Structure to design on (396 residues):
């Protein structure tokens, strides 16, 4: 089914995805787009991709060399492909600030129509802008998905731009590391991927299942009595105009959810992640953002705060070699505190309503421990720890 694909973004996740696919299907043709030539070169050298396409960052740098697009590169901000910057026609094309990839100026041998699927492996905030700036180019693909960890605004952006070929995905895996050179081709194996589907939050298709029944997804995904409060959009997209931001009429009143796609496309996306050894579960975009606010975004804030709390004290006592007293448990718990500030600040703000709710609950639980300690209540403390320990063990 998947003979040729396109991956836009060859950082850690994009390179890991390309390498993982090649390890599963060595004959698959993979086209890789990135703004960083080092990422492209790494993926080519390791045979993760068959063709590397440089995306130029346009006028994002004061460096005069970066202001001009390289040969056979694509302008990330305007979506313009430049074949030869010394050609006056192409220079004029750059100055017109066209907002879409021009299929007539894509590198020789590349055609999005040939890709069975395109995967946006770029940060959520970049995905939002990319959907608007390059909607005509993206519309040429038969199917598009992404790996963004927020879904409501991304799904809304795809709908605003009439990208009926877009199905949202979120592979639940990652790393505090970045860059193609840190790629982990086993990162998807045995992990879970959430695929966005209308009114659905309980159906699971694992990598060993037959997907023939997935066409019945809509009937399986009836409303469930999920106990969560629906939140309105955060409208956090500083680089978007007011008309590009999520609007109230993007909310599907009939289902009460943001959603995308049809059963056939959802089946194909599910099979794609299954090939990588992932178990696929389904959720509407609203529920997705709510639950990952607790299960993914909150743990990152907790890790940042715990790291700061301990290391501030360690820094204050450096003359005593206090860093030697830090345990391996602390290092394991705070591994994700090494994550990118740019990516995670955007994620936190894009999902701030759900995250604030999860922080309130977390602070309440911290205060429970604090009260028990203040009251020296050993029995209640043991009971609370035992209850939490039992819950955690159920997770495996």
């Amino acid at each position: 089914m998947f003979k040729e694909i396109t991956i836009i973004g060859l950082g850690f996740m994009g390179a890991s995805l390309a390498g993982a696919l090649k390890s599963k299907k060595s004959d698959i043709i993979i086209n890789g787009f990135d703004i960083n030539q080092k990422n492209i070169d790494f993926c080519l050298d390791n045979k993760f991709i068959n063709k590397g396409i440089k995306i130029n960052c346009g006028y994002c740098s004061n460096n005069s060399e970066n202001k001009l697009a390289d040969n056979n590169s694509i302008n990330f901000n305007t979506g313009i492909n430049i074949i030869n910057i010394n050609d006056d026609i192409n220079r004029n094309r750059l100055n017109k600030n066209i907002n879409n990839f021009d299929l007539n100026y894509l590198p020789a041998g590349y055609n999005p129509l040939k890709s069975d699927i395109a995967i946006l492996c770029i940060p959520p905030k970049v995905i939002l802008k990319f959907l608007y700036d390059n909607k005509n180019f993206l519309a040429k693909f038969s199917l598009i998905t992404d790996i963004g960890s927020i879904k409501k605004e991304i799904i809304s952006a795809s709908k605003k731009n009439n990208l009926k070929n877009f199905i949202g995905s979120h592979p639940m895996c990652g790393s505090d590391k970045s860059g193609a050179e840190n790629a982990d081709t086993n990162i998807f194996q045995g992990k879970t991927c959430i695929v966005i589907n209308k009114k659905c939050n309980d159906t699971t298709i694992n990598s060993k299942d037959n997907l023939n029944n997935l066409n019945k997804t809509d009937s399986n995904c009836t409303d469930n009595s999920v106990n969560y409060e629906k939140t309105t959009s955060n409208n956090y997209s500083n680089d978007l105009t007011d008309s590009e931001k999520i609007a109230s009429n993007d909310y599907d009143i009939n289902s009460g959810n943001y959603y995308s796609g049809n059963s056939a496309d959802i089946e194909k996306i599910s099979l794609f992640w299954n090939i990588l050894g992932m178990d696929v579960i389904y959720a509407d975009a609203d529920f997705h953002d709510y639950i990952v606010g607790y299960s993914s975004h909150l743990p990152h804030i907790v890790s940042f705060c715990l790291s700061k709390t301990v290391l501030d004290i360690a820094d204050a006592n450096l003359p005593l070699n206090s860093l030697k007293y830090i345990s391996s448990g602390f290092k394991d718990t705070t591994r994700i505190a090494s994550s990118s500030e740019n990516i995670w600040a955007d994620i936190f703000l894009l999902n701030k309503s759900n995250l604030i709710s999860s922080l309130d609950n977390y602070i309440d639980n911290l205060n429970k421990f604090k009260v028990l300690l203040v009251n020296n209540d050993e029995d209640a403390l043991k009971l609370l720890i035992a209850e939490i320990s039992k819950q955690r063990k159920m997770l495996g």
The domain at 292-395 is CATH 1.10.3660.10 (6-phosphogluconate dehydrogenase C-terminal fold). The two ends are 34 Å apart (CA to CA).
